[in-house]
Amino acid sequence: MNITWDANDYEQGFSFVHEYGSAVLDLIDAKPGAWVVDLGCGTGALTAELARRGFEVTGIDASPDMIESARRDHPGLRFEQADALTFTLDRPADVVFSNAVFHWIEGERQDELLANIAANLVEGGQLVCEFGGNGCAAQVHAALADAFARHGLTYRHPHYFPTIGEYAPRMEAAGLRVTFATLFDRPTPQEGADGMANWIRMFLKKPFEGVDDELAQRIVDEAVEAVRPSLWQDGRWIVDYVRIRLRAQKVAA
Length: 253
What we know:
By secondary structure, this protein is of the alpha/beta class.
């Protein structure tokens, strides 16, 4: 995963990530008592909601900071630090659930991700996930690419945002039969007058690696002003999110 998280900053300013994720839980078609693994659980908010719905739960995240926060906030639940590409379970799960994680994993490693998930599911088990879809934050990324170019730099897009047509075959190749898929716009409000700049600093760190702080600030300022006419709406910043939401079932080999 190509980002290092600060759990406190994430929870303080960007709780919308797990708040929007609550709707994805409704796609889980399993009875109470089923074992659900929350892959990329972050600070554990959705893991706790899964537990409230009657599931046996385990939260997994690659970030030690996130796992520490999750264990502190939800001491009665089980959390493990592990990578989505290589995690292993002591027994296969009934459901792997994941919100806002897959787009952080490089496109060339998505097949590896899906194969590992399938290997950790029971036959007939489900993968339920949502992540950034094709066109997500396109205006913000375009503005940053233009700003980088004006300063003689190349903008390295840090995310993988597929279409359904691109992603469903990858799931099927991993032995996961797609039973539900949708791609939809989800304009997402940000907090405060600096909401857009704060969003860029939180979620788009990798493109700024090696850029000195003064120049990085100038690029952020230029990108924010470039998107102001379209994304500053009714006194607040809106990021032009697009999401892809999927459910798949592991089929017999």
